[in-house]
Write a structure and sequence with these properties.
mainly beta; Rossmann fold; 5 domains; six-stranded antiparallel β-sheet; 8 helices; 35 strands; extended; S_layer_C; S-layer protein
Length: 627
């Protein structure tokens, strides 16, 4: 009995020693690096640039992921593919060299309206004050500024109340919304009526403009309209067909051509175009469109109404896996699936409230209303596909829509935590136009409008002393030690993003605004980018073992990637990833892999998908250093 116990303990100790020796051997294989190199493989620092790219700049490698790998593995493969873009090019001798000058310009001003102006011109022109009597009352301080110098749309003769009630501005923005992924639909934005809320109400009596104030746009004073009829239209463009030679008296010759474009009525108006024909009469059932950036799927279209839901996305779910559907608040858990009967069973958790729904049976291709509140389907799920994976088990592809309801004129929708009222123009077959009006008042300075424009209020007052300029400013017949003020208040509406201005110059051109001429450009190579024409990322089941035509980067552990498992078995490499230290990344290089007819292989792995992502990041950094 004692001998059995001793033998048992000795076996445990021996196994432990073997494990320690194995860990030490792996650690030694990657001495000085921040990742593990399995014994028998080379460090990735030995990988040449030719592993990734051919001499002509095209890809020489494919990235292999498991057929049903974890999302982290797929993301790692995508990151590595993106990193390869930095080395996919060919250098050639540069010809026809041009120099591009680039400068970020001022933020475009959509509107700059002086709303109050008190100065010599407004006194004499707008108020017709005579020199010898009217100007002697010229204000000497803020408290003396008069009340009737607000702009009324024609002259500076109104008071604050008249100005606030008559304020109006209109903007048009191109290509802001999409139908079926095509951003060809502009916005028409109209603002009517605008008020000022002084920061210190006690310091403002409603006469002169407040020194500091927020802008207030009342409820139902902003309207945003989107026209969903798509047109083919032309824009007249002038082209030079012969340059001018003034020394010989040869004039330039130009022709006017019609340039074809696609857009809605707002694009046509902004381009001063001419409509040739209608490409699409609007948004129909089955289409997906965006409204102020929110994506909807249209189920049906009525007269003055339509039924639609927000697109939540589509995802693959493994059995007993819980994850969010897209970027929604709904967490889905696949608790059972039967590919033969074409059905899956899920539970759904509302991460916002913590409420759990289900079990819910989903049948292939049949939408299922999961959460319903009144007339709104808060969540609808649809089973798109079913399959079974040797590693992950049963998997299901599920898509979803949220907030499915019928929209008509008067329906409230949320945008940027504010309520907007919808107006619908539809003919029973197509949505023609949708307009949104703010239900909530908007307050701020600066005040953001839909993330596109910023509205600002500013007040400026200056003073000038008669003796300082030796001039009788108020025309009372004498020059005294008296200062008189002028004042101006402005509403400015700016686009949120500055415009980028570019200028292309060739050798021999003069740099504008200077005496410098570009005499030449030295040591310049022409970089020819090579965009892949075939997929770089493939599944492990798609690898051609008979005639491999590239090198391979294998992403994922032996449990997630069948090709990784085969190579580890062929080279008698350790396959129990648990012996590696938790989240430690694993990288290894095989210059000539027997299984792939001598092609080279890089293994990107780890004990968990998180560790694999670390390994992928290290490889990306290595690739970046090759470029």
């Amino acid at each position: 009995m004692l001998m059995k116990i001793l033998r048992k303990n000795v076996t445990k100790v021996f196994a432990l020693l073997l494990g320690v020796m194995f860990l030490l051997s792996i650690g030694g294989a990657s001495a000085g690096s921040n990742y593990i190199v399995p014994t028998g493989l080379k460090d990735i620092s030995n990988v040449p640039r030719s592993f990734f790219v051919k001499p002509d700049g095209t890809p020489n490698v494919k990235i292999v992921v498991g057929s049903y790998a974890k999302a982290e593995d797929v993301a790692s493969a995508a990151d590595i593919a993106a990193a390869l873009g930095s080395v996919l090019y060919k250098e050639e001798e540069a010809k026809n060299i041009a120099v591009k000058l680039r400068k970020a310009g001022e933020t475009d001003v959509a509107l700059e309206q002086v709303i109050y102006r008190y100065d010599y011109e407004t006194m004499t022109s707008d108020h017709n004050l005579p020199y010898n009597s009217g100007l002697v009352n010229w204000s000497k301080s803020y408290d003396e500024l008069p009340a009737d110098y607000w702009f009324n749309g024609a002259s500076y003769t109104a008071n604050y109340s008249t100005w606030a009630s008559s304020f109006s501005a209109q903007f048009k923005v191109k290509d802001s919304d999409a139908v079926n992924g095509e951003y060809l639909y502009g916005w028409d934005i109209e603002i009517n009526e605008l008020s000022l809320l002084p920061i210190d109400p006690a310091d403002w009596d409603g006469v002169a403009p407040p020194k500091q104030a927020d802008i207030e746009i009342p409820s139902r004073r902003i309207v945003v309209s989107v026209d969903y009829t798509l047109y083919n239209y032309t824009v007249k463009k002038t082209e030079v067909v012969r340059e001018a030679y003034p020394e010989w008296g040869v004039p330039a010759e130009t022709i006017v051509v019609n340039e074809s474009r696609i857009g809605n009525s707002i694009d046509v108006e902004l381009d001063n175009g001419t409509i040739v024909g209608t490409i699409s009469p609007g948004v129909g059932a089955g289409d997906e469109f965006t409204l102020l950036g929110t994506k909807y799927h249209v189920f049906s279209v009525g007269m003055g109404s339509f039924t639609a839901g927000e697109v939540l996305g589509t995802g693959w779910f493994a059995q007993n896996e819980s994850k969010l559907l897209g970027n929604s608040r709904w967490e889905i858990t696949l608790i059972g699936a039967d590919p033969l009967q074409e059905k899956a069973i899920v539970t759904v958790k509302d991460t916002k409230t913590g409420e759990l729904y289900g079990p819910v049976v989903l049948r292939l291709g049949e939408p299922k209303d999961v959460v319903v509140t009144g007339d709104t389907v808060e969540l609808q799920l649809k089973l798109e596909a079913l399959s079974e994976n040797l590693i992950l088990g049963k998997i299901a592809q599920i898509s979803g829509y949220g907030n499915i309801k019928t929209y008509s004129s008067g329906t409230y929708v949320e945008y940027n935590d504010q309520r907007w009222i919808m107006s619908v123009d539809s003919d029973g077959e197509y949505i023609k136009r949708i307009s949104m009006t703010n239900e909530d008042e908007l307050i701020g300075n600066p005040l953001d409008v839909l993330g596109i424009y910023t509205i600002k209020y500013s007040f400026d007052m200056r003073s000038l002393n008669e003796k300082d300029v030796d001039f009788d400013i108020n025309r009372d017949g004498s020059i005294t030690d008296t200062s008189y003020v002028v004042a101006k208040a402005t509403i400015t509406i700016l686009e949120n993003h500055p415009k980028i201005h570019e200028l292309v110059l060739s050798v021999g051109d003069r740099i504008p605004g200077t005496d410098y001429v570009i005499s030449g450009v030295g040591g310049v190579k022409n970089i020819v980018l090579k965009t892949p024409t075939q997929p770089i990322t493939i599944l492990d089941t798609e690898v051609n073992f008979v005639n491999p035509t590239s090198n391979y980067i294998l992403v994922g552990s032996n449990k997630a990637n069948l090709l990784t498992s085969m190579i580890f078995g062929h080279y008698h490499l350790p396959v129990d990833f648990r012996v590696w230290f938790g989240e430690y990344p694993v990288l290894g290089y095989i210059p000539h892999c027997d299984l792939l007819k001598g092609r080279s292989v890089i293994i990107v792995a780890g004990s968990t998908p998180k560790a694999t992502r670390k390994a992928a990041t290290i490889l990306m950094q290595y690739i970046a250093g090759l470029s």
